[in-house]
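Course assignment 3, question 2. Fill in each field.
Student: A.L.
Task: Predict the tertiary structure for the chain below.
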Amino acid sequence: MSAIGNAADSIKFTGIASAEELAACPGVSSAERFEKGPVAVVECVQEIPCNPCEHACSSGAIAVGQPITRLPVLDGAKCIGCGECLAFCPGLAIFLVHKNYTDTSSLVEFPYEYLPLPEEGAMVPCGGRDGGFIAEGKVVKVRRTRHNDGTALVVVEIPKEYFMDIRTICRKGAVHGRG
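Answer field:
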């Protein structure tokens, strides 16, 4: 057993952060902060030597400090929701979430390294951390960055109830249907 839940369910063995690991993650804002507008979600749960997110954040909302293996801590009060940190994370573990985009939808922005890139306005199958289908989403924006070898950032509008679940666009061959 690990300190957090069953070791067999941990990112170390599955490649996907478990619910317990995400709940203990210091990079996830409070429920109150999600109500205030766009905010970064740093789903980094492994203590590895890495800190590009800290240097990418011009508002000082992300801190790693010393030792460099500490998990990034997000200060939601300092986060201005600019999304500049997303493309700097080599682990693609940072997302921008706007929970209350409309009464019924949220926006989720994530790094996307596959081609072809989706087109703005397209309806796409959106998936969770494991790549499995959760719900359809509408591509609102696609932008290329200079960082991480030109990693693209994709913004999708999704049903609000999945704002903490959807983290990607499903690739061809992904199984549709939750569960």
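Instructor remarks: The mean pLDDT is 89. The radius of gyration is 16 Å.
Grade: pending
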